Amino acid sequence: MDTFMLLQVSENVVRKSAEMAARDPHGIIITVVSVAVVFTALVVLYFAYTFVGKAVNGKFDWKSLACRFKRKATSKGRPSEEEAVAIAMALDQELNGETYAAIGLALHQYLNDTVHDNESYIITIKRKK
Amino acid sequence: MHTVIESLQQFLQYTGFANMTWQHVVMIAIGVAFITVAIKKDWEPLLLVPIGFGMIIGNIPFTEGLQIGIYEQGSVMNILYQGVQKGWYPPLIFLGIGAMTDFSSLISQPRLLLIGAAAQIGIFGAYVVALHLGFTPAESGAIGIIGGADGPTAIFLSSKLAPHLMGAIAVSAYSYMALVPVIQRPIMLLMTTKKERLIRMKTPRPVSQKEKIIFPIVGFILTALIVPSGMPLLGMLFFGNLLKESGVTKRLAETARGPLIDVVTILIGVTVGCSTQADVFLTTTSVKIFALGLMSFIIATICGVGFAKIMNLFCKEGNKINPLIGNAGVSAVPDAARVSQNVGREFDPSNHLLMHAMAPNVAGVIGSAVAAGILLSFLG
User: Fold this and answer.
1) What CA–CA distance (Å, rounded) separates B310 from A124?
2) Most CB contacts within 10 A, which of A80, B5, B221, B236?
3) Chain B partners of A41 at a C-beta cutoff of 8 Å?
4) Residues B236, B92: contact at Cβ < 8 Å?
């Protein structure tokens, strides 16, 4: 009796095993998911150690990373706070009445949709006769 | 006079000779074979000698009720067996492995981690076949892990998922680990061309102390966050490595990789051997487990070598991987890496693959612990 008591599987394992047998009788789902997770874990480690290796040995190009982030920020059309302050200060120093008028006119045209024709973006080539 | 004869008769009934069956004889013979192979061939002697002797201990027949058997609650052997059954020996072994393993080759060539991942496919190949042979999903998971070629992981997982099969699974895992050179070599030769076997890999770059210290911390956080159920094994493995690499805990590292792992190896070996009592062990189920374990091991080796070949398709000339290190994706450390080295040197005596093969080998340890964690979270 002791032997059987010691070798008994817990109820939780029996329940989960039965659920898995019903859900995935051929073991394909668990295989695919598990292999994917093992690979994910080790791929994550691969990237982490590659990065750590480069960072620790001073081979990581921090400048290009910073540039990439900067470009990302500006490509969204939103300059950083420092950039906004710098632009405001430069404009404040250089602007005069004509510049204000030009900006005002440009804004007026832009907002009233009179600034450009809508382009079709289709290029056509016609043979010359 | 009559009383003396009666007492003698009663005593004789208690002896092992009176209770011996042919199954006991077979198991004792297997135990002797394990010890012989370990001593004569030097195959995994640290494991096979304790397991072999444990088999002999466990198969001396006795009358139940004396509280001496491993399955009798409260007996000495039963108390020692708790470490196997509750799964607290395997993490302690992992602590020692972490404290004795140098991960430099892996840190300097992280791409070789992927070979360690590919070799784990053997586990799931065996899982699918075991299901079709009529094992339950929990039993199949415990059997499949043999393909990870990691004894402590196999014991850890089977203690949770299929304790009734643990003896067969543990003995099968350790037997195949001992047979790594015999099983893997023909597969490696079959899967590689002569040209591939001669590939010389770039010398790994030197690894700084700082990287070695960051490795276990980052490694543990990332893997444990992905598979929290593998935490006991991964935690102890990386913790042991931190003890080694930190440089300020030399005494702890020495204890972990010395006396502690030795004590636990003795206990785990003897008790696992003891648990193979003929009535529990000698069944057709055990035969199936041995066959599945072998299959799992073969698939793991094929996947490791095959994946190294696939990686070569994307590597530039001069940066290629010698596919002979693919077998080391299974986590039999360092035997599998040694096989890569020996087979590589058969074809080019000056080509030393050991350093390179250690990378997928230790990645295999991490990979098999992750795979065990996944199976535990699905089935445990």
Assistant:
1) 46
2) B236
3) 117, 222-223, 226-227, 366-367, 370
4) yes
- Two structure tokens written together for B77: 């052997």
**Beta-carbon neighbour count of residue B351 at 10 Å?**
18
Kindly report the nearest CA distance between residue B126 and chain A, in angstroms.
10
Beta strands in chain A (DSSP E): none
A118 to chain B, minimum CA–CA distance in Å?
46
Span B42-101, pLDDT tens digits: 888 988 999 999 999 999 998 777 778 888 888 999 999 999 888 889 999 999 999 999
- Asked if the Cβ–Cβ distance from A45 to B366 is below 8 Å, we say yes
Please state which of the ranges A29-43, B59-73, B319-333 shows the lowest mean pLDDT.
B59-73
Rounded Cα distance between A10 and B162, Å, is 9
Of B223, B280, B371, Cβ closest to residue A34: B371
Distance, in Å, from the CA atom of B50 to the CA atom of B151, rounded to the nearest integer, reads 14
pLDDT in tens, B152-185: 999 999 989 998 898 899 889 988 888 898 999 9
Q: How far apart are alpha carbons B151 and B291 in whole angstroms?
A: 17
Q: What is the pLDDT of residue B167?
A: 85
